[in-house]
Amino acid sequence: MTALVEFGRVGFAYPVPHRTARSFAIRDLSFTVAAGEIFGVIGPNASGKTTLIRLLSRVLEPDSGDIRLEGERVRRLTRAAVATRIAVVPQSLPQGFPYTVEELVLMGRFPHAPGRFFESEGDRGIAVEAMTAMDVLELRAEPLDRLSGGERQRALLARALCQRPRLLVLDEPTSHLDLRYQAECVGLLRRLNGSSGLTIILVTHDLNLAGELCHRLLLLADGSAVREGPVESVLDEATLEAVYGCRVVVDKHPASRRPTVQVVWPGA
Length: 268
Known about the structure:
Layout: E1 3-13, E2 25-34, E3 38-42, H1 49-56, E4 64-69, E5 72-73, H2 79-83, E6 86-89, H3 101-106, H4 121-133, H5 149-162, E7 167-171, H6 179-196, E8 199-203, H7 207-213, E9 216-221, E10 224-230, H8 231-234, H9 237-244, E11 248-252, E12 259-263
Parallel strand pairs: 3-8, 3-9, 6-7, 7-8
Antiparallel strand pairs: 1-2, 1-4, 4-5, 9-10, 11-12
Helix pairs in contact: 4-5, 5-6
């Protein structure tokens, strides 16, 4: 297994502004992501999922330990260099983001020439390829605030592809989508992983999405790794009940035979 990403005993703590404030820290976090796999990161609120993304993309620097990308220490790379290898797709865009689909997608070329003010013809060609792959080329002139949730998600994915990354990191990609667009998103991610071997880290609260898509999972709680491994070993009833503090039933999806998680509602 060739490791694309390696976290080695990584620690990080946010500064505490005053004594009554709640502190949070990542503690001794170690895991690897293999090239070409879909790796899921799951866990309850305040477990460290967002902090993990920020550390990997070098928005934050670890206090201890080491993060490596293709064998290189991330702390030795410039942020632009990291962004040519890692594309992060956020949950959503800010309200009133005043750009068209094409303008958004072309932003993915910035890390490749951060001192340049204008896109080249080569950049525009790469953007057209990315918009075509995500089926938003016909929407290239549309303002982002006129798009549906699914269209906006495809535009964000096109921007990420325009970066030509080795690793795609998705933060809750289906959280604002209805069932149709959730299914569409799953299909797109499978296609990207299967056709080009793109490595994907999926950060999600949706345990069933993680169970359906991912090859391996990392379960976090309170800034620490609870379990890492194949989907079936992580989506374990006793483990999930201990971490989430509620009763669950883990079954098999009738079609895919992948693990599914159902909450046992109080009083049922």
